[in-house]
Amino acid sequence: MRRRVRTEAANRYRAAMGFRAWPRRRLAAVSLLVVLLLAGGAAAIATHTSGPAPYTERNVRIPVLDGPLNNQHVVLDATFFTPAGTGRVPAVLLAHGFGETKDAVRGQAIGLARAGFAVLTWSSRGFGRSTGQIALDSPRYEVKDVEQLVTWLARQPRVLLDHPGDPRVGIAGASYGGALALLAAGYDHRIDAVVPQITWNNLATALFPNAAGGPPLDGVFKRQWAGLLFVQGAVGFGPQGASRPGSAVSPAAACGRFLPSVCAMYQQVAVLGRATPQAIALLTASSPATVAGRIDAPTLLIQGENDSLFGLDQAAATFRQIRRNGTPVDLVWFDGGHDGGDQESARIDALAISWFRHWLAGSGWAGQPGFSVSRNLGFDPSTGAQSLGVATAPAFPGLAGSRRTLLRLGGPPQWVANPPGGSPPSMSSFPGLGALGGSSGLGLALDMPGQSAAFQSPPLAAPLQVTGASTVRIRVRGPVGLTLFAKVYDVDQAGHAILPFSLAAPLRLSQPSAGRVVTVVLPTMDYQFAAGHRIRLVFTTTDFGYATPAAPARYQVALASPGITLPTDPALVLQGRGLQWWIWVAPLVAVLLAASLLLTGRRRIGAPGQAVDPDVPLDIVGLTKRYRDGQLAVDGLDLRVERGQILGLLGPNGAGKTTTLRALMGLIRPDSGTITIFGRQVSAGSPALSRLGAFVEGPGFPPHLSGRDNLRLYWQAIGRPAADPHLDEVLGIAGLGSAIDRKVRSYSRGMCQRLAIAQAMLGLPDLLVLDEPLNGLDPPQIREMRDVLIEYAASGRTVILSSHMLAEVEQTCTHVVVMHLGRRIAAGPVEQISGDGGALLIGTPSPARAATVLSGLGGVVNVEVHAEGVLVHPGEVSASDLVVALVMAGIAVERVAPSRRLEDAFLALIGPVEQVGLAGTANGAAPDPAQTAKAVK
Amino acid sequence: MSGQTERPAPELAGTADSPAVTGTAGRAGTARPARLAASAGYSPRRTLPLKVEAVRQLRRRRTLITFGLLLVLPWILVGAFELSGNVPADPQTPGLVTAATVGGLNFAGFAFFASAGFLLVVAVALFCGDTVATEASWASLRYLLAAPVPRARLLRQKLIVALAYSAVAVTVVPLMSLLAGTVAFGWHPLKLPGSGLELSTGAAFGRLGIVLVYVLITELVVAGLAFVLSVSTDSPLGAVGGAVGVIIVSNILDAITALGTWRRLLPTHWQFSWLNALQPQINWTPMVEGAVVSFCYAVVLVALAFRRFRAKDIVS
Predict the structure, then answer these.
(1) How many CB pairs under 8 A join A and B?
(2) Tens of pLDDT along A158-203?
(3) What is the pLDDT of residues A609-622, one digit of tens each?
(4) Residues above pLDDT 70, as percent of chain B
(5) Is B47 in Cβ contact with A717 (below 8 Å)?
(6) Which letter, b or e, does each residue of A556-566 get, where b requires 16 or more Cβ atoms within 10 Å of its Cβ?
(7) Residues 740-779, chain A: which have Cβ within 8 Å of B?
(8) Residue B182 C-alpha, separation from nearest chain A C-alpha, in angstroms
(9) H/E element, A192
(10) Which of residues 544-583 of A touch B (CB under 8 A)?
């Protein structure tokens, strides 16, 4: 009877929340493949490589003998699953639901086989390819079959035996199979563990319930469900049955595969709409209630909350009966059932496996303790589904709960009418809708006006978690056969009423009543009524699912107790969901992780080196920096600048000038060496940097601000609000005129350049570092800049200037440092460096010829033709030898003087080094000076 | 100074001997006491004040356009609803979308729904992802650092301002929606999606306030992510796009139900958990979980940003 039902509740809520109109999910679907590759793939591979345990499966046909006289030959179509290996293992019998075959439990069987059990599934007599007829789990038929299957198992070489002929075996099944499991355990004591799901305790009370406490003979016929089951047995039910061509029922086949006695019983009951003693006897015989008192196999009872066919009260009865034997029995209420809900298949299957592991294989019990209840924790929009939690308690307290709350109900005595023919009926659930893929919990509850009486509570002050069967006492007046259906509604503040689990409790009085007081046991449930909600108790005269009297009648319903008694079980504690442990642990871990990220990996910047004179603006010792790409940019640089100096930092591209400047601004971290500014070692963000003004690697301004705002905001950002920025003076230097109030975005390169120099000079820093400050300036501006810098240094401040305009450097700087390939190759006053090259300027009227002659001399490094003569780097050749050579060649020599041009000195300094790089080219000839000069540029 | 230049000579040279400059020179130059390590009045605590950073960011076209869009969006939505005619609200199970036109309060709730998934993510990613990377691309970062604004302080100030802008961005959408919705659809109690329960104005503001706070917390993930990328790249577009991209991937992963409980680790898994605050009974659990996940990601990401930036060579 059990059908796996996918819940529609999630979709319903998603629609309610507006998800349906939202394309997010569609986008997701489109990109599914990408994502599988991205991350899902990795997870999938991981689970597959870990590999499920292999198993083998074998179809067998097992002949059995049953019937009252044990003379009916039936062949059961069975499948035997065994785990890998050759040893003996415990076995599990897996029974299917009504209308199903052994194939319905194949997935579960494989799961059990992989968990190490030998599993036998079979189609019950009358189903699938098994022969025989349906006897409704009769002890004379189906139960006898199971006993013979146990014997069959005992003969299998892979099955563990307790004694010869007595295998170590458990039995599980849902609904029809669940009852069979319980019955078999009651009749065959070789069975060692039982896991029945969503099944009946007493088929008579399940199909003829009476909430007024009368015998099932006086019960109200659960007509819709009974009819569905009968049809399922006769012709099959569900979409496949309905659509099968040629499924028309021939008159002879009206009973389908039912045993004729069962068929006749049903037909009689269905026509009468009432129970007959024969029917009660037949149904009772098929009920675990008759044998539960002798079940000694540990039993895990699993019952669905969404079940109007076999309610939670059925399992509670079985629990009580088995418990009385002293047999271990646990009770699980899960979200599924015959009416749909979340079947929680994975969890339920795992529970069954761990129960069998514990009682058949002797390993630990990883399930829930005693009593566990699935609770709907409400819609979780992030998953788009109802979120479930599991509450557990050490033991099931019974349907009356461990505590009871009396909630006052209000409402006068009310008259209700039973419509002639019982139509139109009120509604609680729609039996069988779950089997069709819908959910009968869709809120179909409907109370026909005039046919229902309602009693309502005041709003609840606090949430109320009801676990068990509530009771209420009512006083009723009415004729014989008075039938009522009691429903407990949850009414929210807006007045919307929800019928929890779509359950109704039918009651019927076999005697006419003139104000008899009846205790009504309301539907069993685990449900939370929220604070502010009301509880409404409704009695209707009809219900779609039940057979009701056809004769028109009027009944009066009045409260006989002040209210409704609601059972609660405070011992139930929500596990898992709710605020989980990680809610508290995760932030702590995150904060610790963050702290460790911040506190580790700090590199201490150099040891405090030797005391440096605090009056020295800049002192660099042994600076070395290798970038991450492996380029050694600066290699052991030593540099010292004194107060009042204008230091020219020279070097070809790639000499390490910019790297040096970056390091002294604290932008990059040197690999070794120290930089001290006014005696303080510099690292990123050192306060000493506040005495430094810098313009390095071009200007950098937010382009959306004007020049003036840029300078103003920069000054405000650098943490010296009290100091004088000397804004007017530096603006004068920038010389931008009215453009200063235009956005920087509109500036030319030169304007940006001047603004950046002005920014560097804001506050007139003690040490001013300018990197290529003259690029983009026109000659008058260059000249101005020169004067500005000279004056700046004259006031006792220090300027470091890096430039390729050697002539300007020569005119502006007092000192020069020449760098090449990351090293300092010369340092000193400008005059010293520029005169240091050893180059000679030889004045001659015919420089071209002179150059030819001199180039021919061995040892001369370089000859360059100038307008007024030739510039010679004589190398080892003495000046007099040069003159002699020229005179000998008949070339007039007007004068011979050392060349004092910085450019020449610079070229001379870096030339030999260049030559190293060029060695092997052009027969070791001197490098082309023009090329060298280009390289410098 | 020089007769060769037509423009007035810079003042500095001329005033070198004036009291002002000599005074400065005296303070900052030769006469400066040797023990002074920093420039007079320099204090790291006064560098890059929040006000300055806020002004620097506010005047940007990017900021103004973003806020413009966020403020116009509710009116566009109103226009869309007016154009299509009011969606008939299903009395049984109104959704946020179908009940959007009930009144200003519902419209504000709908605006959250419409913008939280992507628009607000982009806005937050923009403010937090752009902040350092842009400075690097302007090359102004090195001048701030050399000023010197200590690196940790620079990040802190920028983060605070970026988060403040993000918070304002997240807040203006529902506020403007409240206004636009009220103008267009009138004032009506908040009709909760699903149940259709109507809340009084006070309760409705409370619920929307909870939603706002929750959305702000979930956006912290985006902020942290964008911030890490911002200090890692010199390309503002890369940082913003990268953060948005990661969020999109996270969204896609979240749609794969096969990932099961692993999805709970995804930052976007909890993006719409605030819908729990619009149920008749507020379901706090998913919101607390979502907030915790978001907080954890954000804390670690921000710490990572500080760690990266601390040791980074600024070569832009």
Answers:
(1) 365
(2) 999 999 999 999 999 999 999 999 999 999 999 999 999 999 999 9
(3) 555 677 888 889 88
(4) 84
(5) yes
(6) bbbbbbebbbb
(7) 759, 761, 763-766
(8) 21
(9) strand A191-197
(10) 577-580, 582-583
